[in-house]
Amino acid sequence: MATALRFNNAALRPVLSSVRSPAKTIAFNGLRCYSSAKTQTLKESLAEKLPGEIEKIKKLRNGYGSKVVGEVTLDQVYGGARGIKSLVWEGSVLDSEEGIRFRGKTIPECQKLLPKAPGGEEPLPEGLFWLLLTGEVPSEQQVRELSAEWAARSDVPKFIEELIDRCPNDLHPMAQFSLAVTALEHESAFAKAYAKGMPKSEYWSHTFEDSMDLIAKLPTIAARIYRNVYKDGKVPAVQKDKDYAYNFANQLGFSENKDFIELMRLYLTIHTDHEGGNVSAHTTHLVGSALSSPMLSLSAGLNGLAGPLHGLANQEVLNWLQKMKKQIGSDLGDKAITDYLWSTLKSGQVVPGYGHAVLRKTDPRYVSQREFALRHLPDDPMFKLVSQVYKIAPGVLTEHGKTKNPFPNVDAHSGVLLQYYGLTEASFYTVLFGVSRAIGVLPQLIIDRAVGAPIERPKSFSTEAWAKLVGATL
Asked: Where is the active site (predicted)?
């Protein structure tokens, strides 16, 4: 590890010298970005920070590498590695009481500090990507230029369009999305450079280029799937002077509704990242640790996100709420909601959207969506139902006694907001989540390559070996 870090440090000097040169021109797969002393590009900002970050990790390991940071119980081993401290994830940390912090900043702080679109109220996901990658809040100009760069990189290869168009409409949108992302491996700068032979010091740069291209293309890919499966198959072109979320909303067919565009900005921002241990983040990291390209790594993460215990949960919440509404009708009284909650629990089901592996309070991502709804759709019947469930469910779940966290998570709210604005196709919701999650997991992949993170390879034991280890007789 130390050798790799020294090597990376030295190899960054040519990159840093180009950062300090105001007139330097950098090529990005055909797009030429002219940097200046006034406004650094994202890649320049990252390159400038990397030597210090590499040195920080080296110093930490050299001084404290043998220090024990936790213990593992047998329950954790058989409980899905729940709570085991074993991953490095720079972008976010999840506190059980406080919720998520992106590079030390809460969601309300991000909403206040990150740049917005002209006249907009919600932060732009471009700004959060910058924050996750560098730890710094970008300027408005830097975010505008990043928006322009993503728009310039957004063209999808013709064979990917044809691949999507050939998919049967009854193939789940998430499967189509993963398929298209996997096929983008054909365009991977990292895979091509690795095949030719490149020094480790260049890994992060090619990973950065792939990640930028991938994020830029995801909305167009997702929109093509949406328009093929549910609409007329026609996808509007990316508007090069607009931000990422605006273009995504426009390609989906919702550009006429300014509030929906703001919702997309919020949605894409708050769904990006939630520590490194969740399935989609960890899977992307794990596959990436084998030096798979960002395309293959993200596709693996998307396949995990598609599961009902992860990203599919928001669809399940909406289905549950709709069934409740159908049964209780307009009666949103406390008794009607309480009775329905108990009927769900007594049938052996969980209340979807409530509880979390780490959180022990209401998810701040839920709160941010609730505040959006209070501003924009306070009288919507489904929002009123969500509010009533929020009022009553924690007490019922506490009385039930089998839920460690009786409060709502992000999934308890997002589907109702999307449905209100006309995006009613719940089977597509996980694809929206996937577009957002890419913005959160790919920065860590870039950082992993920059600091020379090794392949992940934990030790496993059989049940008999574990029994012997703890002195048990089976």
From this structure: 310, 356, 411
